[in-house]
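Q: What would this complex look like in 3D?
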Amino acid sequence: MHIQIDEIAKDFGTTTALHPVSLPIPSGALVALLGPSGSGKTTLLRILGGLEFPTSGRVLFNSQDATGMSVQDRRAGFVFQSYALFRHMTVFENIAYGLRARPRATRPNKAEIDRRVLKLLDLIQLPQIADRYPTQLSGGQRQRVALARALAIEPRMLLLDEPFGALDAKVRKELRQGLRDIHDETGLTSVFVTHDQDEAMALADLVVVMSMGRIEQIGKPADIRAKPATEFVRDFIGV
Amino acid sequence: MGSLASRDAQSAIRLTLLITAIAVPMNAVFGIAAAWFITKFDFRGKAFLITLIDLPFSISPVVAGLCIVLLFGANSALGDWLVASGYPIVFAVPGIVLATVFVTFPFVARDLIPVMIEQGRAEEEAALTLGATGWRTFRTVTLPNIRWALLYGTLLCTARAMGEFGAVAVVSGKIRGQTATMPITIEMFYNEYLSVAAFSMAATLTGLALLTLMLKTALELRHADALSATRRH
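A: Here is my prediction, written as structure tokens for the whole assembly.
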């Protein structure tokens, strides 16, 4: 799905989280929002997911205005920073949650839910953990379960908030490739937030460098490295 | 134990159980609502609302009782009208319920707020992004996560509701066989030198309190697995 961010601004009381920013996200792209904390990248992601609403500006999904669309109607697969798995539910129930939450008319039957959850567990290469609770999983496993839970609703886009932030360096590298593979397999338009320029450069098709609520540069990793647009970008990516 | 069989004693036990059965569910609902608003939303006047919840802890129950008399007593226009329409509040069951609800209000909310702050909003937000409605999110995510704090708060609230003396003493008018609750009946027996009756009633009240504690322990034992799985997170 093609996403168009059109002059989006966001204030929290007297502080400005986002100055008007515009950004086209081509269908099927894997985009990184890169910047230090306080740059507004998470706010922008949450606006896309419908968890925050902009003070001004518009969001377009496939050229249709989606600015006021409710979080439920957006069908955005959202992976939270600390994964936010439902701690009182097993892995199976976590992944099945979105399917069971559907209105009766579109809810798949029990056998179909079973089939889909098991397929997703295969996709994240953790077929044997269905009956465990989130506390019994490693950090890397939790992240993959969160990804499977988000994919279960057949999302129109995938939004990930620091998906590798809570992991150690070794696991991080492995899961990077995992996310890339899942993105390529599903073809979903995906946006992830990171403060790690290495990660953004290695993983994304398109990198959006942000600072102080503004977009500093949009470009392919190689272009940004070759031609940093501002002093800030040069500094931040360390070339 | 023969003294417990008297009509006044029986009526006191029934009244106390009735008041508790009304006040505790009300405060459970109010407590959940207050804790939910305070922890899941940002709004102006939040600090004021938290102070308001603590008010019953800082105000003497007798003063709270007097305030209810002032507001709904026969000397006020509202009280006058209520009595005239056949719904007296003061010196009747509704007044006792009101006093009990006020005094025991903080227990549930106070137990829930720290738990809900610690858990944050991420799980609820996750449920919403997965397509769940607000009500479904509350039922399937929020409520299971706070159930132990809720149980604990409710039991404390129950124990306190059964034992409330000060506010109820003022509001009830201590009408024997009608508005005298267990604690008030204990005091009346004691003042009349009916020591055996007073102590049997006191033992019964203590027994009810112990019963709620046993209920809590039993529930904890039964759900020990789920409890340890969620606590370690």
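A: To summarize the key features: Chain A touches chain B through 30 residues (CB under 8 Å). The first strand of chain A starts at residue 3 and ends at 12.
Q: Very helpful, thank you.
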